Task: structure prediction
Amino acid sequence: MAQGPSAKFVEQAAALLADDPAKAEEQARAILKTAPNDPRALLILGSARRRQRDPEAAYRLLAPLAKAYPRAANTHYELGATLVALGRATEAIAALRQAVSLNPDHAEAWRTLGEQLFDEGEISAAEAAFARLLCTSIQNPALKGAAIALSQDRPVDAETQLRAYLIAHPNDVEALRLMGDTLIRLGRYADAETLLAHCLELDSGQDGARFFYADALFHQQKGTEALSQAERLLRQKPDDPAYLNLMAGCLGLVGEDSRVGDIYAKLANGYPKQPRIWLNYGHALRTVGKSHEAVTAYRRCIALAPGLGEAYWSLANLKLAAFTREEEATMLAQVARSDLSADDRLHLHYALGKALEDRGEYAASFDRYREAARMRRVTTPYDASDMTQLVRRSKAVFTPAVIADREGAGFSSKAPIFIVGLPRSGSTLIEQILASHSKVEGTRELPDIGFIAGNLGWLTRDTQEYPGRVVSLDAANLNSLGRSFLEKTRAHRKLDRPFFVDKMPNNFQHIGLIQLILPHAKFVDARRHPLGACFSAFKQHFAQGQAFSYDLADSGRYYRDYVDLMAHFDAVLPGRIHRVIYEDLVEDTDLIVRRLLDYCGLPFEESCLKFYENARAVRTVSSEQVRRPVFRDGVNQWRHYEPWLGPLKEALGPALENWR
Result:
């Protein structure tokens, strides 16, 4: 737009828009008295009316202005923002796209475009707009290359560039924020946490860095810490959908499931065209037992995004009803698409496997499960020898003498009951039974023992680290670790009952550690027929962990190592571990429940046999099964697939013949 004699006054009026739009309007009108058609003053006036929540008046000014000046990026941006306020989404998106095509560095136009596309459920386009926003919002030219690499989903390249820059500029908060984002994309959450904490120490007002910091904490299941960061963000922007989504995830980690549902109900109402909100809302509804409402949410998600494979798999995982022929046809059409993402494709294979299983087409079903597992294995590498070596080291370290020498060490609490074993072996059912007792609270699969083991070298490649470092700890350190476990897990205990359940199945790997830091804890080994347990895990897509389960031979070896380690602890800790065989529990529930309660030192309560009446939230894939009385249908489902389980049988070896 051409400069005129009133340019100084125009600049002054424009500078007032952000903080005092009423004053900006006043000055724009003063300019228009002497220059009635000045396009700059008209643009300021239109923007001022929009900012003062009068989009109709703004539109009457901006629409003809945009038509008269088709190459004015700011005018098209203001028109687009006004159309957003008027609820005219299609026109708004067109105007905003025109703005960014005229000025690709217009950060606010990219932001508004991304938000509007998100509202309309156009996921890919919204993500592309936010990626461009990342590039345009970077002020330092030296960081542009890294920002572009991130926007193009090249985090390795971004890390290389940022690492070189940060060597010379270690306290550059913009670079630190970018590096935090990069490390999260690379899955290096602990590194991201450390770096972003430093960034926030330098500038606590960096909301972008705080969001990534909370995300890094969330991915490490540090729920309490992440929650405090999310709450701080929401104090600034209480309706921000990204912050609300993060808040819901954090609340889920600390067991505030009803609040999770409330947040997603609010988001679904505010963003009804956003499929992933409906997906997450379905998850929240399923957790609190509202299964039929969850089905509705998942189907709403599918209607909005027919290619979103996780929605179909979530529907299949409810195990409430078989897919219709029409739904199967839609899944087949989607999985045939060449442009479908790998994640959507593997979820669809899992869902189709379940659909075919429900119809008794077991060969075709197995093919789908096998293809899904193959795809998952590509992104989830696993070395079976790591577990075998851990078992060997544990047997060598945790001898009867070592246990006896540390008698009296550790924290003396009797509160924890650990349910261990393989996933899909009845652990959720056992937890539900125990949590139906008046003295026991069910929590979730708590990560805290894994954190303790990780700090002692569990996940390092140095075979001398874990569990060797456990027995090098003195009595004070063992006591401190036990006490810390009780303190860290307190956030999950809402009912103030004397006992609580931690049903992380993988904790069987850490029984030696738990014994030394919590010598009075209870251990319940949930065991199932190896073919039943391993195949049930094989056809399940786990959100995280259980990398062994995506290959039948690896599953068999894992099961074999598990029973080997449990046999060792049966010998060195006689009477300390109570075994519940899933098949026995199904066959004679009353007897097995009474024995379980007796082991835990609990009086029998009838409510434990009516566990299905317990309305507590259940976060695992067995959530619907434990809300029904015990049924026998699932005990021998693996037999339908026995012709294809040869690699599993071979890997199991003697563990199959003598599995109890």
Notes: The radius of gyration is 29 Å. The first strand starts at residue 416 and ends at 421.
